[in-house]
Design a protein that fits this description.
With 224 residues, the protein is of the alpha+beta class. The protein has seven helices and twelve strands. It is 36% helix and 27% strand.
């Protein structure tokens, strides 16, 4: 049985690449959520469709899945398809975090759940809508996001370093999973992963015996 963190390690970096693509598409922006239409309007000239995943409460420190929300009647049924699909997936995979209606934010957050959800649902990215008292997380699926450029070395390095500074996971598994999912044919030894990215740039990473990143592209990584 695969654990939640194993799913997270497999999904995290490829999902963050999709987040990066969304940022490239949007640039500086303002937005408006239209729940009735199921679309987010950015800068009054771009509309992207969404599915509602769930919410984080700043007051109760709880994540609530959209399929379990008592206010679900306010959300059109067609916008709950992804959250219900994820519940069914969680039941099959025996992942309590996806099958339970509510979760303590002390041990997990909406970003982890959304990064996994992006890959399970084959979505383009996710989006966090912050409001007073909490946040809503939604999935976006749109070719205009998909068609943005993949990571170059600088963007990959920035996202990877930010990820491993925020979460306790196996750094090597995260990078290896990303490179293999992109069919980049990484060369791996007991301590090193290297490959050529789609950009033509060379990636080089060294890890210690526990899979923790120690050198990235010739730069030592400070111990946190």
């Amino acid at each position: 049985m695969t654990t939640l963190m194993e799913h997270f390690e497999r999904s995290a970096l490829i999902s963050l690449e999709k987040q990066d693509k969304l940022e490239l598409l949007l640039g500086e922006h303002v937005y408006e959520m239209d729940l009735d239409a199921g679309k987010i309007r950015f800068n009054d000239n771009l509309e992207l469709p969404f599915q509602v995943l769930g919410t984080e409460s700043d007051n109760t420190l709880v994540w609530l899945w959209a399929w379990a929300d008592e206010q679900t009647e306010e959300i059109p049924a067609e916008l709950l398809q992804a959250s219900r699909r994820l519940r069914e997936w969680g039941l099959r995979e025996q992942l309590r975090e996806f099958a339970s209606p509510a979760l303590d934010l002390g041990r997990i957050d909406g970003h982890i759940l959304s990064m996994i959800a992006v890959e399970v649902c084959e979505a383009s990215c996710y989006f966090r809508d912050a409001y007073e008292g909490g946040s809503a997380f939604v999935l976006i699926s749109d070719k205009r996001v998909d068609n943005q450029p993949s990571f170059d070395l600088s963007r990959l390095s920035r996202r990877f370093l930010d990820l491993v500074s925020r979460y306790d996971l196996n750094h090597r598994n995260v990078l290896s999973s990303y490179l293999r999912s992109k069919s980049l044919s990484p060369v791996e030894t007991s301590t090193v992963i290297s490959c050529e990215l789609d950009s033509g740039e060379s990636l080089y990473a060294e890890f210690d015996e526990s899979g923790r990143l120690v050198v990235l592209n010739g730069e030592p990584i400070p111990r946190g």
